[in-house]
Amino acid sequence: MRSSKIRCPGAIRVGTLVTAFGCLPHVAFAAAREAPPVTPEVLVRLADIGTMSASETTPLLSLSPDGRYVAFQVRQADPVTNLNVFRMVVKATDGATDAIDVDVGGEYLFWTIPSWGYARNAPSGANLTIQPRWSPSGTHLAYLRQDQGRVRVWRASVKGEGASPVIEDAYDIEDVQWLDDNTLIYSGRPGFVEAEAEIEREGRRGWVYDERFHPLTGARPRVLEPISIVYQVLDLKTGTRRAATPTEVARLREKPDPLRAMVGRTTFSVSRTDPQNINAPTTLVARRGEGEPVRCDEEACQNITRMWGDETANVLYFLRREGWASNEMALYRMPADALKPVRIWHATGLLQGCERQAKRLICAQESALQPRRLVTLNLTSGQMSPLYDPNPDLSRYRLPKVERLTLRNRNGIEVFSDLVLPPDYQLGTRLPLVIVQYSSRGFLRGGTGDENPILPLATAGFAVLSFHSPRSEASYQRFTSPIAQSKAEYSNWRNRWNILHTLEDLIDDLDRRGVIDPARVGLTGLSDGATTVHFGLINSHRFAAAVTSSCCTDSFTASVMNGPRISGALKAYGIETDQADDGPFWAATSFVVNASRLDTPLLIQSADEEYLGALPGFTALQQARKPVELIIYPNEHHVKWQPAHRLAVYNRTIDWFRFWLMDQSDPAPDKAAQYDRWRALRALRQKSPSPTPAP
User: Which Cys pairs are S-S linked?
Assistant: First the structure.
């Protein structure tokens, strides 16, 4: 049996003391003159419960049949070995005993889903959420685990007495569930393996370039849908397998609906007030027996994200988003026969993957300075209590100051974001500002994709704006389909202007308060945030330096690099993939036609999978003698998954902004070549003609 409480997956350096993160003795902090700062090394080693991209309904946790234990997976990165360590953890829900690791090991299993007609999309880089399944007796867990590139089903004793693979096939297993203590049903797609083998055979004669290709993620055809799912049943005692019956398949496919609950004969669900309008508010609906549905008219019944029924107490509990720009989460209790909800808890931050256990919820919870942990939330009093924290020592570090910002932008839209200031910030001091996009709910780690280290940037002396993208103007209007709304948002880049205007409004607000130096503002972004970087550098004069994790927003990337299938689909959404860069659509975002007008130093930190899409824009900037650098990380995806790369991205981002916004350099000998390149870029910038002002 391994105790999670004393396990120390990685070592870090704090001053001259080398110790293990999560196991730093209290005396070490007490003896120190001051608490140590949050460095990139500390941030990259933080342990995560589940996947980095979890939402309120992501199934992060699994309660035992008797409710006495909760099981979950923890991942911790080690940049020295460049490995992610995975642990399957079991914790008593009463908190009376230490958590134990029932399994340690496995490879990084990428989250991939069918999309755009591909049977399996290219990995985004995020890890798949692994929700363990409890045996009916509560003695074992079954779960997916990848080793040597093969996804199998593993079984572990919940007492920590051992774990081993129990199901392996010629194809990857995609789901598993217990039928009884000795029988498992599982699913996978053997046809996918067969289709890949056919592509391999075809390659001997040469592949025809067609809609199977997505050049941005590789020079190989992708398998297209449909690929049938096969369901098998394994008898653990005899080892025999057979095809699953329809009833057994239904057991595996049955998933709880987070927006549906029963209390006695009353069914509660959520529906839009106008079913034909995709932007109409959602509200709670109750249907008693075979009677007519009754809509709850209370404002508190809108924007519900999760619900649970309690038949014993004749009560419905639900979580919802509320407050300014829906920046808070709240828990409500409502009598099943009254439709009068009462709020019992609310806060900024996130509750994720909640499971109800008697009179409380067990949830993954995070806030601005609190990484994801497990808590219990009392359904009567609303009291929150910690249950399990995989990063217990972070609070002993010298943490920056965080302020929640709210404003109404120039388009009348409610906005929230977070301002993060150095721990020793003195009121009235104007600091250089770094903007990190584009979600600011929960722990302020590295923004979307986790590439721009918020707390270490603040520790380095920057003010950091953790920017939460506003709702689009179109989202307040009536549309009958997402395609129609998307076309409206891309018309004249309407939504991108809304985002840029919001950023400028926030910069102006911080300038008026005397917090920032408006001449030293840096902008970062990944994915949609990268598009905002490209758009912002071309259409605004506010940014003195920028870092982007992908590039670029132009015709080549949208049409050529996305291939025939996706580029055709994008056009339906309002993206003009058949228009050249100098056409009216791309003129607002393309570096190719705007290079001579730009002067902002730009660092592109790209995955090798995506760098080809950056070359037209990067080359145009280079040929125009503009300060730009392209770094390529091998074997990476849209979101970087390798710990060594994440640490390198963290450090280079801080170095870039210190160089351009603070005129500071790191004297470390191994960074000498980096600063030689950057000083050459600075000299190049000083010699180049003045750029054309942005509109």
Answer: 296-301, 354-363, 551-552
CA dist 352 and 71 (Å) reads 15
Helix (H) or strand (E) holding 90: strand 83-92
Last residue in a domain, options 237, 255, 273 = 255
Q: Is 245 in the same domain as 268?
A: no
Whole-angstrom distance, CA of residue 268 vs CA of residue 266: 6
Percent of the chain predicted with pLDDT > 70: 94
Rounded Cα–Cα distance for residues 222 and 122 (Å): 9
Q: What average pLDDT does range 459-482 have in this prediction?
A: 97
pLDDT at 112: 87
pLDDT for 578 beyond 60: yes
Distance in Å from the first CA to the final CA of the chain: 65
For the stretch 656-690, pLDDT in tens is 999 999 999 999 999 999 999 999 999 988 876 66
Q: At what angle do helices 494-512 and 482-490 cross, to 10 degrees?
A: 60
**Catalytic choice (451, 610, 629, 636):** 610
Give SS3 for 292.
Answer: coil
HSE (side-chain half, CA atoms, 13 Å) at 14: 26
Distance CA 487, CA 480 (A): 12
Instruction: Let me know whether 189 and 240 are in one domain.
Output: yes
Query: What is the DSSP annotation of 454-478?
Result: HHHHHHTT-EEEEE-PPPPGGGGS-
Average pLDDT, the chain: 92
Instruction: Give the pLDDT confidence of 424-438 residue by residue, as tens digits.
Output: 999 999 999 999 999
Q: 346 — phi, psi (to 5°)?
A: -160, 155
pLDDT bin (cut points 50, 70, 90) of residue 25 is very low
Least confident stretch, 26-40, 119-133, 302-316, 372-386: 26-40
Whether 315 and 334 have beta carbons less than 8 Å apart is answered as yes
Q: Collapsing DSSP states into helix, strand and coil, what is residue 445? A: coil
Residues 419 and 480 in one domain: yes
| Tally of structural domains, the chain | 3
Told to judge if 610 belongs to the known catalytic residues of this protein, a careful annotator would answer: yes
Q: Is the dihedral of CA 22, 25, 29, 30 positive or negative?
A: positive
Cα-based angle 537, 540, 542 (whole degrees, multiple of 5):
90
Residue 125 is assigned to a structural domain of this protein: yes
Distance CA 531, CA 18 (A): 41
527 is catalytic: yes
Q: Are residues 382 and 445 in the same domain?
A: no
Q: Which of 231, 255, 279 is the last residue of a domain?
A: 255
Catalytic residue, chosen from 214, 534, 637, 638, is: 638
Range of the domain at 84: 59-255
**Which of 53, 187, 527, 688 is an active site residue?**
527
pLDDT at 23: 38
- Domain contains 623: yes
464 has pLDDT over 70: yes
Helices marked H in 304-367 — which ranges?
A: none
pTM of the model: 0.92
526 neighbors 639 (Cβ within 8 angstroms): yes
Q: Is residue 520 part of a domain?
A: yes
439, with CB counted inside 10 A (0-12, 13-18, 19+), is middle
In a domain, 23, yes or no: no
* Per-residue pLDDT at 632: 98
